[in-house]
Design a protein that fits this description.
Rossmann fold; about 35% helix
Length: about 190
């Protein structure tokens, strides 16, 4: 199986201890851990600072059997509300639905108080994003996973995964993908 993981700095593997956007080593990034544990080809389509882009055609993305998408944290940090982010995500996903046979929409773990998360609004809206994404996934008929249920450790900034968090996230994603093979199964 060939999976495209399209996301932000947590997909990229950003190490928040760095000053120049450096990454954790490959043995610590969730995408690489997923590839090693499954034998699948996992394409890391993560980009630091990425918010939900304008809609694209599937031809603009690498060819893959499945798409894992986790975005929304940067949109929150830019002041968007959960319902606005969900609407953006819907516009982004619509042109991709006919192309990918498997799409997994992942709600990022809710933010926690930290160096980047100093407003109550961010805590509230990041928690609300989960329900908005779950409703969207149901409406579109795609798979959904709630990474907030997996116990992903966040770093001092309240947004980025720690190395241990990447390991937990990789295990959660793998379980969610394997669960899809044996319905009915909740991907939360």
């Amino acid at each position: 199986m060939r999976l495209l993981c399209f996301g932000d700095s947590n997909t990229y593997g950003y190490d928040p201890r760095s000053f120049l956007g450096e990454r954790y080593p490959a043995e610590s990034r969730w995408t690489d851990l997923l590839a090693r544990s499954t034998g699948w080809e996992v394409l890391n389509g993560g980009c630091n600072g990425r918010s939900i882009p304008a809609p694209v055609s599937a031809a603009q993305l690498p060819q893959a059997d499945g798409l894992i998408i986790m975005l929304g944290s940067n949109d929150l940090l830019q002041g968007c509300l959960a319902r606005e982010i969900s609407a953006r995500m819907e516009r982004f996903l619509m042109p991709l639905l006919p192309t990918y046979s498997h799409i997994l929409l992942v709600a990022p773990p809710p933010m926690k108080q930290g160096a980047w998360v100093t407003e109550e609004r961010l805590l509230t809206e990041s928690a609300m994003l989960t329900g908005a994404y779950e409703a969207l996934a149901r409406r579109l008929g795609i798979a959904f996973a709630d990474a907030g249920l997996w116990g992903v450790e966040l770093t001092f900034d309240g947004v980025h995964f720690s190395e241990a968090g990447h390991r937990v996230f990789a295990a959660g994603i793998r379980a969610a993908l394997e669960c899809r093979e044996v319905p009915p199964c909740s991907l939360g």
